[in-house]
Specification:
Oligomer: single chain
Structural class: alpha/beta
Largest sheet: 6 strands, mixed
Radius of gyration: 17 Å
Strand order of the largest sheet: 5-6-7-3-8-9
Distance between the termini: 34 Å
Strand content: 25-35%
């Protein structure tokens, strides 16, 4: 799906991503975990075209995404559910979902996909005409994921989907992530909740201060003593 070679991101004099290389295979869940400032969000923002970057982000079509406008990247089948959800609070749930389909002109298909998102997240169906700002934190996260799905992506990137959620909602969100993957979507998951992320990921990269410190199968890293000590509390 994506091969990332020597990716570098700078914010002024700050070197946020220091030449990392990643492989995101089609149909898999890949996770990036690490502390705040590790470079996780900068990596997905670079993939999305939201920040300037150097290096290579090679899409399965053979195109290098570096320097491409965000809209073109969405058209290639890559969507981001950003950290902090970023829904529009004054718009209804359904209006937020329709915004996720802004690149599409197939009205019938868009309506079908809204129904599909409502099937994935039944609570959103119940609140279809409520302003997004009136939803709970968990419901807003569901809306953010649903909005990203409305562009019909092949690669769904989720930036901190469990942030600020109660444990029961974290479990629900991760079950939905696994289900979305079984539908053929590739998932790139950015998480500080290392246990939850490694439990669902096929492959994982641990980032520290903008560089890859460790990589391996999700289950392998879940039982790695070094990872347990640093990220899993024991």
């Amino acid at each position: 799906m994506l091969k990332i070679n020597n990716l570098r991101v700078f914010y002024g004099g700050i070197h946020a991503v220091k030449g990392i290389s990643l492989h995101i295979p089609e149909g898999k869940i890949v996770t990036l975990i690490g502390a705040n400032g590790a470079g996780k969000s900068s990596t997905v923002r670079a993939i999305s075209g939201l920040v300037k970057a150097e290096g290579e982000i090679i899409h399965k079509s053979g195109q290098n995404l570096i320097g491409k406008p965000s809209e073109d990247i969405v058209r290639l089948g890559i969507a981001l559910s950003p950290e902090g959800r970023r829904i529009l609070p004054q718009l209804t749930v359904e209006e937020n979902l329709r915004l996720g389909a802004y690149i599409r002109s197939d009205k019938e298909g868009v309506q079908q996909d809204i129904e599909w998102v409502f099937d994935l997240f039944p609570r959103l169906r119940e609140r279809a005409w409520q302003p997004g700002g009136t939803l709970s934190g968990g419901e807003q996260q569901m809306l953010a994921v649903g909005r990203a799905l409305m562009s019909r992506p092949d690669l769904l990137m989720l930036d901190e989907p469990s942030l600020g959620l109660a444990p029961i909602l974290v479990r629900e969100i991760f079950e939905i992530i696994k289900h979305i993957n079984t539908l053929g979507k590739t998932v790139l998951l950015i998480e500080q909740n290392a246990f939850a992320a490694l439990s669902v990921a096929h492959h994982a990269y641990i980032l520290e201060t903008g560089a890859v410190a460790l990589e391996g199968a999700g289950q392998e890293l879940l039982h790695n003593p070094q990872v347990k000590k640093a990220y899993l509390g024991g």
